[in-house]
Amino acid sequence: MRKSAGFFLSLVFVFLFNVITSAQADDFCGEFGVMPSLDSPFAAVPYVFGRISLKGTDPGDRFPRVTIVLVDRQQTEKRITVDRSGKYCFKRTGGSGGTLLVEVDGVEAARRPIPSFSAAQVREDFEIFSQDPQKTAPPATVSAKFSHPHNDKTVEFYKKTAEAEQNKDTQTAIRHLKEIVKIDPSDFIAWAKLGSLYFEQNSLGEAETAFRRSIELKLEYTPAWINVGKIRVAQKQFEAAVEIFKHAASLDPKSGRAFQLLGEAYLQSKQGTLAVQALNESLRLDPAGMADSHLLLARLYDAAGARHLAVAEFKAFLSKVNDYPERKKLEKYIKDNSQGTDKQ
Question: What is the pLDDT of residues 5-22, one digit of tens each?
Answer without folding.
Answer: 444 433 333 333 333 344
